[in-house]
Amino acid sequence: MDLYLNKASGSLFRTLLFTFTICSSTAQFEMGMHDVNLKEIAAPLLSDVRVTNETFTFEKIMKSHFGSALKGQTFLDVLKLVKSKFKVSANCRSDTDLMKNDTDLFIKYADSASKIPFGILQGKFSWVGDYQECHAIDSVSNPSTGKSFKGKYFSAVLLLNGKPIFGASTVVLGVCMPDSCGGDEVKSILNEVLYLIKIEAMTFFPDLAKENLFVYEVFPEISKPLDKGAIAVIVIFSILCAIVLISTVVDYGYSFTVNKEVTIIHPRYDVAFEDSTDRTELLSNVQIQENQCSGFKHKFLNICRVFSFVTNGKKLLGTETAVGPLASLNGIRVLSMWWVILGHTYFFAVFNIDNVLEASKLTQRFSFQPIVNGTFSVDSFFFLSGLLVAYLSFKQIKEKGTLNWPYYFLHRYWRLTPLYLSIILYYAFISPYTITGPNSYTVYQQASQNSYEVCKKYWWTNLLYINNFYPNYGNIQTTCIGWSWYLANDMQFYLFLGPIFIISFGLRGKLKYIGFAFIAAIFLAGVVVRGILVWYFGIYSLAGQATKHIDNPWSQNNPIYDKPYARWSVYLIGMVTGYVLASTNNKIRLKKGVVAIGWCVAIATGTAVVYGMYHYNHTAGTHMTLLQSVCYIALSRPAWGLCLCWVVLACVSGNGGPVSDILSWKIWAPLGRLTYAAYLVHPLIMMTYNFSALQPLHFSDLFMIYLFIANLVVSYIVAFIVSMLIEAPMIQLEKLLLAPLSTFGRRFVIGPLCRLGSRLKAMVPVRTRNM
After folding, report:
1. Distance of alpha carbon 625 from its chain centroid, rounded?
2. Of 482, 463, 456, which is closest to residue 417 (Cα–Cα)?
3. C-beta neighbour count of 513 within 10 angstroms
4. Which of 561, 525, 529 is nearest to 545 (CA)?
5. Angle between the 568-583 and 626-652 helix axes, to the nearest 10 degrees?
6. How many Å apart are CA 194 and CA 215, to the nearest integer?
7. Which letter does DSSP use for residue 33 in this model?
8. What are the Cα distances from residue 165, in Å, to 34, 35, 220, 358, 738?
9. What whole-number distance in Å separates Cα of residue 751 and Cα of residue 404?
10. Distances from the Cα of 320 to the Cαs of 168, 263, 280, 286, 654, in angstroms?
11. Taking 50 as the threshold, does the pLDDT of residue 631 lie above it?
12. Which of 102, 218, 432, 517 is deepest in the core (most CB within 10 A)?
């Protein structure tokens, strides 16, 4: 949803919202041209809210209503005065007449219907009425039909002269009518009401006679039973919950008969690649001493502990491993996740607030720039991922002489995919049923249905981690769970950049300089390609909307935001940082002068990256030149990666000061293990809350603070639950299932390759080898 107060601030707010785009499609409406299905503009998630001529005309009609003979009456109050015959069924007509003539009953229906609000010019497009009151109306028997009827909620879409009232969005009325009426019948009734309101308004403004205010479409409340897919997913999740519950009971009961737990603490990250998590570090390296038992009982207990809430919970919540030279990574990871949740809090709230134009002024604030530029939080994850991959890989090579490549590839896929698949299943089959209330009709509109269907049809692209290219050219708005674009990029970096970097930096002799140069060339290529794309497509924002070559399908589907060739520079900076830490064994010494200069440069650079666009965001009618955009967009992300590189090196070398102390707090360790789950689930939580709200939210700073804290806490609670149900057991199973594969790889893949390399090396003359 885009918001406009003026050209400059509105354009920027569009950038902000697109930045955090999840799964919705934005309807474009050409003034005077019906080039989209107007039914779709009713949905708040499709709204482009701005004040137009239609807005002022509509406001004139509505406010005139207060000065007319109908002053203070609701839409259903006006219904009593309508004398014309509606085009409705006999049952609907009879029930409507009974409702109109029964004073006590009519008061309930009228009270639950939407009223003309104040603040129309602030973008108050959702007039929902009282959804719960409508449902609370008791069933009434109609003697004329011999049937009973009760209240049913309807959402009516208004147009003025065939155009939306707020740009590409329009007013949606919530009305309560007898459930014997259908959508078309309510549409006919409301059109008569609106016509009478306009006639009364004409006594004040005769020029309104030429205006045509009407109900374009009415969406009745829909309650569909669970389909087969939803039932199947619920059964699968139920079985999983049952397994975890049974395993927890067995493990907890057995714990009374064993000796006191003994923990063996390993420094975090300072373990072999095969024994730690390269990215999420979900479980701490705490081992639980088992009672001496053998046979079936021993195996059964081990299996139960794989799924046990107790065992996995102790490991996940443990802080024993939150020590060591790289403990500061925990704080960076968690704070970056909070940054993501903060940005998405504003993004989803905008879909359902009643003063959207007031909210659009946010982008002009200096304090709001970190949210406008919240996409750098994702670059922090790319940096951390690259750092840990390089660090753990080179540490294993240093300790064991080689890297277990089969395990390298299987390890990452196994860790990420099970929980990822679970979220896809939930979103595609379960989440539509979690949206209730006055906005529930949006679930059944075509744009929303498409977002669910793309998951059902193209789920395999997510599991192959190619969804940032296919389908729809990887458009975040039209792929399955759009926020998963990050996972696709991260996996592609891991599978392709990781091995290239490890091999290049693992070369010896003069060949290592060739490797260094090769990686440097790849890094520069990423920066240059990003700059070229910005210039070619005329991109003026980090979100990547193109202004040139708009007929090009890549231009229409964001050519830079979610594409690996425009993102890998930060990942490579992280890998170089990890290589330096591994090669020096975390023993880095920096002179005081270097430390002072490093912190000054890092702080200045980070501030410039985050706040550098403030002038253009704050001053109406200004924007960067295309050359300035090329420089800023191409260099800002690598610059942010370099800032993080300095922070890590300073903390590891003991020059982090209070920054290192804060980032190394032990509390970050368990929260850091929940980062992956929190990233996947938090958009679902926000969508459910915002689209199920019974009333539009009213933006204010205090409200947004409370909403952010609520989103943060609930996201981590849900993340903990899904981690215990899915992610933690999968990590435990990895040790049972992938260990044999690891042995197989060493015996039949790594071993033969090493022997082949030794033979080839023996065939090379000594003089050539020493060059």
Report:
1. 31
2. 463
3. 10
4. 561
5. 20
6. 8
7. B
8. 14, 16, 21, 17, 59
9. 10
10. 54, 9, 16, 8, 21
11. yes
12. 218
Residue 479 DSSP SS3 = coil
Backbone angles phi, psi at 434, to 5 degrees: -90, -10
Q: Which helix (H) or strand (E) holds 662?
A: helix 657-663
Q: What is the dihedral of CA 36, 344, 379, 723, to 10 degrees?
A: -110
What is the C-alpha to C-alpha distance for residues 375 and 632, in angstroms, rounded to an integer?
Answer: 14
Task: Tell me what pLDDT residue 287 has.
Answer: 44
Q: Which two tokens stand for residue 125?
A: 């497009």
Q: Are 711 and 341 in contact (CB under 8 A)?
A: yes
Q: How far apart are CA 349 and CA 737, in angstroms?
A: 43
Q: What is the pLDDT of residue 377?
A: 95
Q: Chain-centre distance of CA 345, in angstroms?
A: 10
Q: How confident is the model at residue 65 (pLDDT cuts 50, 70, 90)?
A: low
Residues 6+ apart with CB under 8 A from 669: 268, 284, 318, 319, 321, 322, 327, 330
Q: How far apart are CA 345 and CA 718, in angstroms?
A: 16
Per-residue pLDDT band for 749 (boundaries 50, 70, 90) equals low
**Could you tell me which of 439, 486, 479 has the C-alpha nearest to residue 676?**
486
The 3-class secondary structure across 564-625, one letter per residue, is: HHHCHHHHHHHHHHHHHHHHCCCCCCCCHHHHHHHHHHHHHHHHHHHHCCHHHHHCCCCCCC
- The pLDDT assigned to 535 comes to 94
- Calculate ∠ Cα 56-26-224, nearest 5°: 100
**Phi and psi of 140, rounded to 5°?**
-120, 135
Task: State the pLDDT confidence band at 725, using cuts at 50, 70 and 90.
Answer: very high
Query: 3-class DSSP state for residue 689?
Result: helix
Q: How many Cβ atoms from other residues are within 10 Å of residue 638's Cβ?
A: 20
Q: Which residues pair with 215 in a beta bridge?
A: 158
pLDDT tens track for 324-333: 889 999 999 9
CB 574 within 8 A of CB 387: yes
The answer to whether residues 130 and 80 touch, using CB atoms and an 8 Å cutoff, is no
Question: What is the phi-psi region of residue 412: left when phi exceeds 0, alpha when psi lies from -120 to 50, beta otherwise?
Answer: alpha
Q: What span, in angstroms and rounded, lies between the C-alpha atoms of 40 and 55?
A: 19
The tens digit of pLDDT for each residue in 458-467 reads 999 999 999 9
Residue range 99-114: average pLDDT?
90
pLDDT of residue 282: 36
pLDDT in tens, 532-559: 999 999 998 887 788 898 888 888 888 8
| pTM for this model (two decimals) | 0.86
Cis bond upstream, residue 752 (ω within 30): no
Q: Please, is 145 exposed, middle or buried when counting C-beta atoms within 10 Å of its C-beta (0-12, 13-18, 19+)?
A: middle
707, 345 contact by CB (below 8 A) = yes
Positive or negative, the Cα torsion across 191, 195, 201, 205? positive
CA distances from 628 to 405, 505, 537, 625 (A): 43, 34, 14, 5
Match 């993501």 to its residue by tokens. Answer: 340
Torsion of CA 579, 580, 581, 585, to 10 degrees: 100
Collapsed DSSP state (helix, strand, coil) of residue 289: coil
- Looking up tokens 């930060």, which residue turns up? 570
Contact (CB, 8 A) for 558 and 534: no
Dump pLDDT digits (tens) for 208-254. Answer: 888 899 999 999 988 889 999 999 999 999 999 999 999 999 988 87
Label the pairing between strands 126-127 and 140-142.
unpaired
Q: Where are the alpha helices (DSSP H) in 146-182?
A: none
Secondary structure letter of residue 85 according to DSSP: P
Question: What single-letter amino acid sits at 589?
Answer: R
Distance CA 328, CA 334 (A): 10
Residue 59: in which H helix or E strand, if any? helix 53-67
Quick one: tokens of 408? Answer: 């390298």
Q: Which residues contact 332 (CB under 8 A, 6 or more apart)?
A: 380, 384, 644, 647, 648, 663
